[in-house]
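Input set for joint prediction.
Command: fold jointly, output tokens.
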Amino acid sequence: MDLLTNILAATVVAGTPLLLVALGELICERSGVLNLGQEGMMLMGAVAGFIATLSTGSLAAGVVVAMLTGLAMSMLFAVMAVTLSANQYAAGLALTIFGTGLSAFVGAGFVGQSIEGFEKIAIPLLSDLPVLGRALFTQDLLVYFSWLVFAGVALFLRFSRGGLVLRAVGESPGAANANGLRVLTVRYLAVAFGGAMAGLAGAYLSLAYTPMWTENMTSGRGWIALALVVFASWRPGRLLLGAYLFGAASILHLVLQGLGWRSPTELLAMLPYVVTILMLILLSFDPVRTRLNTPLSLGQPYRPGH
Amino acid sequence: MLQLERRPEASTTLRWLSPLLALALTVATGFLLFLGMGKDPIQALTFFFITPISDLTGLAELGLKTAPLLLCAAGLTVCFRARIWNIGAEGHFLIGAVAASAVAVSVGEAGGFLVLPAVLLAGIAGGMAWAAIAAFLKTHLNCNEILTTIMLNYIALNLLLYAVHGPLKDPCGFGFPQSVMFADAALLPALINGTRLHIGLAFGLLAAVAVWVLFARSFIGYQLNVVGEDHRAAAFAGFSARRLTWFALLVGGATAGLAGAAEVTGPIGQLVPQVSPGYGYTAIIVVFLGRMHALGIIAASALLALTFIGGEMLQIAMNMPKAVTAMFQGMLLFYLLTCDAFIHYRIRFRRPLPAGLSQPAAPAGQEL
Amino acid sequence: MAVSAQRLKLQGIVKDYPGCRANDGVDLTVGAGEIHALLGENGAGKSTLMKIIYGVVQPDAGRIVWNGHPVTVENPARARQLGIGMVFQHFSLFETLTVAENIALGLPADEVRDRGALEQRIREVSEHYGMALDPRRFVSTLSMGERQRVEIVRCLVQESTLLILDEPTSVLTPQEVATLFKTLRKLARDGCSILFISHKLEEVRSLCDQATVLRQGRVSGHCQPKDLSASDIARLMVGDDTPISTQVSAAQPGDTLLQVQELSWQTDDPFGTSLKNIGFSLRAGEIVGIAGVAGNGQEELLKVLSGEITLKGEAIRFTGEAIDRLPPGARRARGLAVVPEERLGRGAVPVMSLADNALLTAAGQGLVRRGVIRRQRVREFARDVIARFGVRCSGEQSSASSLSGGNLQKYILGREACQSPRLLVASHPTWGVDVGSAVSIHQALVKLRDEGAAILLISEDLDELYQLCHRMGAICNGRLSPLAPASELSINQLGQWMAGNFKAEEFADAAA
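tokens >
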């Protein structure tokens, strides 16, 4: 039983950064903007959060700084992709390349330093449940926060007028403008939310998951999150499931090694990426569902009055 | 009130001026950044941009780094023209290097003029095979090529690590994760004697010329352009997107695979984990900066090659992090895309009309 | 709200676009409860003017007076606030949302808290004006006519006092047009002003009280359409020197060229239409027309015929050979040419030159040898098309996007015609085209027919179909009606067919 609990707990921890960044990207894509810069924003969030915590000693400061950094990065993207109608693919790639470089540059002096990361907090009563109690309810604050964000996003999309506006803009910015909705404002807000969440996801890595900074420490999680959003067909519920499935895949090699399976670590380390491709293949068997749920204007720049 | 306004015709001048503007902005930002770090900006920029190319050895080193970038970028140009967002040059490069090394290691000390072609062909085949996975996934399973090629890059990197830790590891290498040094028959000949510059640069220039011919003269180049500009027109005309996707990705895989092979058989002479400092990713910037044009990518390859050397120079001379290279590259791409917006748009100052008030009409423009 | 006699008054509206003046000192006055027509051929500046009224674009000069007060309409939201509602030709609806959600998006947030009340209001308004609507249905499941109702009801729920309708009848069957007009008259009686934008003169004459006619961005006349004949109004629209229509001689059909039997195709696009059991035949030297409301399978039929969609069976026989499996290039080589509906972005690549666009379909005319483009020949071919079809442009190096709709269409049709096709499938060839170009396009089609080609004309414009076609039918929801000689087919019957009222046993194509 202990082993199962440990695996579940590790799954949740590994899935949390994916969940956070993917929730942000989900909102962003629902507005019709595809931001391939997740990886860059996460890295910047991770390094900024780490430096902030290291210099102030406050984890809260780290989290706030990380989110603001992610947001600032996303605004660079928004200026190019939303205001200047640049190609969203190229702008997103630029953001990732830029963020990767800048984070390595900024963080160069901080490699190898360590901080006290987030601690696990047991929720009274719930944490006493068998198996699940310790797996789900003895986690750090950011894990609990990710659930709050998840619930917020799900409710927002389902019930709020804002969610309706977001979906409308994502389906047809032209029609939205004709209906008097402020397309560019909506898209800016969606991109900003995506940026803040990516920053937070980065902070989770450098403040909770492995409380330290190393270059490229996201190792492709930003990209995996992009695949996750497609896999979830832009629905929060499926996203939650997908994020934890991925969390499981990414700790699988640790589990296998724990079970005494002798296999080269380099080959096992490929697993998350192989699983991502398998997931994309799986999606191809249900193209109608993917097309039905894809925000129709995804990736298309919009300028009112043209 | 500042307004963005679409130009009636895209500005050709700005299309070519934009990379230069972006470079100027990057240098200016670098200046401020060095100033902010308390370093002498003039000295730093000199170390970065000038010192590396002030003698023959330096220029040879520049050519050495230009070669893989140019090869990768030539292949990517074919993909990007068709709007096939192949981010996988890095993976193709790594697999090409591994495949070439596998052949070179297994040939051992055997000589003969066929060894080198076999090694290079293995690299090309490796790159193509890796690209073929993405092509298959895209054409038959409709998987987004951006995500698959990125994932394949990570997988390729792990394969490389596996190779140098396992099957290709030098048994007498004191445990270092690297292969044996290749025999002379498997090494590329030098282009300029006394420098490390090898014939790989010629491959790169040939690839650029091939790209020029492809798009200036051939019908398949035209078809790639049409698919990229307008996939619905391509479907209407009956150009097979599937066939063109395979073509573009295989070309991309072949050139990047060759680049990988040339890297291990050229300056390095063995397979090491750090065989690529990110050539495949930097090549993406090269393609955008070079306007997807043969001449442009040659110039852009040289410039970005310089950022690699300049970064090393700053690290040695001024004790700055090596990541300054990646940051300069990222900034360059960023400014480029921003400047590119003004190819299609211009800024106009426009006073808002007060409610209901009329303004004298400007003289009538040309009527259609 | 105090109702002044003049609801909307435009004075001296000017709008410049780079390279052209779309509106040049336009005056327009719409009274309360008046149905006012805004007439003009394509490119006359109608849509620019209505975008200015609705706040989508801003005028460069001029004033807008609303109920006696000068106003600035900064954006559509402001227009709605003032009471200006707009029904777009290409609807501004969200397909993945329900009717009620669509309407809620156009209303202030506090008015739509209570979804139940909103649904009730939608039902009331729509029934009052004879436009039954279910607020809970998804827009993607609605027909074009129903979608138009949603747009109108949306304006009414917002209590618009001026309703702008842009070419509203182009997506309706003749019967639906009659219902719409009844609704509009009732609205006008209730005090709502209506600005009716159209180029269909008979409709305007039967519906509108007043008309303003635009030509090349200027007002060329005001009139009471009921007092003038259609041809008088047409002269106001196009001036004296443009031919208004073309005389079409009788067809001399020859041998059967195309035989389509039991053609079915299942779409995997959730918003597409499947083709069901389509059968018809087409003979050399005749023009066969297919009428229908947009989105009923025309696009899919075109793709199946062109080879963009290939099939497995033997449903399509061209000169006796089953061509179901052949890709577009092979079909083109056999003499099957296609002019698609979208000129920019299917028929031509916008950013490419006319010469490069010639290569799109004419590569087989000796323009490419062993995979190498013969630039000189490409230029000659393009110049030939430009000269023979009177394409107005600055040369074969002009980009496709720099041409007006009519000129680009002439070029695309010319590109196909110059390859001497045996069968030409043309979809909406005169959609959005000026009258002069439309006439020359019609003449080109008739000339091709007289040279012995078979022509399949897919169009929403019933006038065009009646004018050109020898036989015609209608497509509805992926099914094709029987074909009948145009001279014997009443517009009422055709309207029934467009609405899908034809029996399965009538399918046996009564080929003449």
